[in-house]
Amino acid sequence: MKTFKQHKYQWLISALIILVAIGLGTAIYKTQKPPATTNTSDHEIKTHYAEWQAAYLRGQHSKYVLTTSTGKPQTLSEAQGYGMLITVMAANHQLATQRTFNQLTRYYLAHRLSVANPLMAWRQTEKNGQMQSASNERTSATDGDLDIAYALILADQQWGSRGQYNYRRLAKQLISAIKTHEINATTHLPLVGEWATTASTVNLVRPSDLMTAYFRKFASYTHDGSWTRVAQNSQTALQKLSAAHATGLMADFVTVSGTKLKLGMVHAKQVASAHDNQYAYNACRIPWRVAYDYQLSESRTSKKIVQKMLTFFTRQNKITAIYTLNGKAVTKTANQAFTTPIVYAAQATGNQVLTKRYPTALSTKIETHNYYPATIHMLMLVMSGEIGK
User: Fold this and answer.
1) What pLDDT digit, counting tens, does each position of 295-334 carry?
2) Which residues span the domain enclosing 58?
3) What number of other Cβ atoms are within 10 A of residue 76's Cβ?
4) Of 173, 223, 282, 371, which residue is least crowded by CB atoms under 10 Å?
5) CA angle, corner 206, sides to 100 and 202, nearest 5?
């Protein structure tokens, strides 16, 4: 009996030791894991949304995001995606935005490539009082389609799909079209558009289109496992691109080919601008895209990719527009399209250095005559407001 009691007490003591160790380990992990932080308030989002809406939303029955400050009014599918994301996310901050979202949805529907192919035409310009696409503009840009599809999913989750528009059906139709027309069948990565089917374009990739968070959501929302493969390959490509340079910076465009996702570089002016091979006006969105995946999934891989980029920016005296991949600043000018995604990413991943260095980057006044930085600024503000919720 004495031996049994000794063994019983030894067992109890061992169990207590294990429980204490687990508790200490959990406490240490939570202490070491930097908390995501944001000071963004509903009041700030309301104020900025009103400013952004007044400056950039146009139209009555249907609405679009104005991308030009001079000349004929113009918009892009990219802008429509941003506008729809901003508007549906603003609804989480005591703003009644469904009517506006429906107006933006109506514009998207009017400018699909066709009823059978719901990808959006990439650009429209006002002509004779109507927003129209020229024949060479009736092709798609994948980034805009991805944002529109994701915004429709958020709308379904926010308001349901029994109202004026069945957001769920529209989202699934668009996601299906993206899969059919805008995903490379070999690499399982996004094409830059449905037009990119030739030998010289089919392997082009905009790294900012590697929206792992979206692809995870598409998989669960549609119950289509092929999107999991797209998410996995996107993350693998991002890892390879991050490892390619000490800065962790990535270019506006690269090539990715074959089942092993072999990386290649593009040269200046090969695709869209003299900065195609630099961290420029497409690539500046990468910190936000990857940090958003970490915010939603807590992916360690996504966090590591973002942290490497943020480490580079902590070493800069200020964030400016456009860098070579080795980290040389190409301009001396600051631009909110570059600054605000980095600040949002810092908040989402708990980088206190950058969060404290740029405390007013998101709360500063919205620019009223420069669509791209102003709209990315607005989007980063509403996404910042989602941290921790």
Assistant:
1) 999 999 999 999 999 999 999 999 999 999 999 999 999 9
2) 38-182+366-389
3) 23
4) 223
5) 115
- 39 pLDDT band, cuts 50/70/90, is confident
Phi, psi of 290 (to 5 degrees): -75, -40
SS3 assignment for 230-250: HHHHHHHHHHHHHHCCCCCCC
Give CA separation, 316 vs 245, 250, 321, 323, 377, in Å.
16, 17, 12, 11, 20
Strand-pair partners of 64: 58
- Per DSSP (E only), the strands in 163-280 are 204-205, 254-257, 262-265
- Say how many CA atoms lie within 13 Å of 110 toward its Cβ: 17
**Residue 219, H or E segment:** helix 212-222
E-strand ranges in 247-359 read 254-257, 262-265
Q: Which of 289, 283, 286 is nearest to 266 (CA)?
A: 283
Q: Give the full edge-to-edge strand order of the sheet including 262-265.
A: 204-205, 254-257, 262-265
User: CA 271: distance to chain centroid?
Assistant: 21
Tally of domains in the chain: 1
Q: Is residue 217 part of a domain?
A: no
**CA gap 259, 254 in Å, rounded:** 16
Query: Rounded CA gap, 74 and 108, in Å?
Result: 14
Residue 42, domain member (yes or no): yes
Just list the catalytic residues.
143
Query: Domain containing 100 — which CATH number?
Result: 1.50.10.10
> Considering the domain boundaries, does residue 274 fall inside one?
no
CA 91 centroid distance within chain = 18
Crossing angle of helices 98-110/142-159, nearest 10°?
A: 140
pLDDT tens for residues 171-216?
999 999 999 999 999 999 999 999 999 999 999 999 999 999 999 9
- Measured distance CA(200)–CA(203) in Å, rounded: 7
Cβ neighbours of residue 236 under 8 Å, at least 6 residues apart?
261
Query: For residues 177 and 204, what is the distance between their CA atoms, to the nearest angstrom?
Result: 19
Are 309 and 287 within 8 A, CB to CB?
yes
Q: Would you say residue 162 lies in a domain?
A: yes
